[in-house]
Amino acid sequence: MLEPEPNDATPFLPERRSLDALRKAAAECKGCHLWRNATQTVFGEGLKRSRAMFVGEQPGDREDRAGRPFVGPAGRELDRALEKVGIDRDEVYLTNVVKHFKFEERGKRRLHKTPKRFEIQACRPWLDEELRVVKPEVLVLLGATAAKGLLGAGFRVSRERGQPIESDLAPLVVATIHPSAILRAPDDEARYAEREAFARDLAIVAEELVARA
């Protein structure tokens, strides 16, 4: 009889909970089934002293191959917006609610599949530790999966985007779209509008970081 798949990363957490120790331990995580098909764990990236933390959904194809978050097309959109509002990418902490790439194969392509709630919950111990160690002043949730995973299934990014959210997760929590939504816009005009709206949301984050300095 086959053993049931685990559904909790907690047993893989290290005794020492520094970012380096967590990153090394996460590389061996088998807390849910997603590790089986992914190339590697994609842990968060950034400094312990980062004042802002950005949390997305999961690594994509490029991130899975590189082992770093937000280095693919969506990452370039994030970089563009950060530069526009004056936030240095090297000064923020970037991570995802799920650390392994979930996908389906279509020919030679690997197409993103949205993580299910139980997969997000299985991976949650890693994110909880990242939040505990970094202690961000501002937490930015990128997209519905991250926002619902941390704020509850009833949360709607479309209704709350760019607004301060009351939460114990950080002194200031803000939700906005995932930058991949810009790439999915149907034409150049829609893409431009999405980019501008995304930058406006991140400008609120930039203003708060300046005000809290």
Description:
It contains eight helices and six strands. The chain has 213 residues and is an alpha/beta fold. The chain has a single domain (10-212), classed as 3-Layer(aba) Sandwich (Uracil-DNA Glycosylase, subunit E). The strands form two sheets. The protein has a four-stranded parallel β-sheet, sandwiched between helices. The chain has a two-stranded antiparallel ribbon with strand order 3-4. Strand 3 and strand 4 (109-112) form a beta hairpin. Helix 3 crosses helix 8. It is globular, with a radius of gyration of 17 Å. The mean pLDDT is 96.
Main attributes of the structure:
globular; 213 residues; two-stranded antiparallel ribbon; alpha/beta; Uracil-DNA Glycosylase, subunit E
Indicate the topology.
Elements: H1 19-26, E1 52-56, H2 61-66, H3 73-85, E2 92-96, E3 103-106, E4 109-112, H4 117-134, E5 138-142, H5 144-151, H6 157-160, E6 172-176, H7 180-183, H8 188-212
Parallel strand pairs: 1-2, 1-5, 5-6
Antiparallel strand pairs: 3-4
Helix pairs in contact: 3-8
Which ranges are low-confidence, i.e. pLDDT below 50, for 5 or more consecutive residues? none
> What average pLDDT do the residues reach?
96
Rg estimate, integer Å: 17 Å
* First-last Cα distance: 58 Å
Supply the CATH class: Alpha Beta
The H/E string reads HEHHEEEHEHHEHH
Q: How would you characterize the largest beta sheet?
A: 4 strands, parallel
Gross morphology: globular
Number of strands: 6
CATH topology: Uracil-DNA Glycosylase, subunit E
Overall number of domains: 1
Architecture, according to CATH? 3-Layer(aba) Sandwich
Q: How does the helix and strand content classify structurally? A: alpha/beta
The CATH superfamily name is Uracil-DNA glycosylase-like domain
Give the helix proportion (percent range): 40-55%
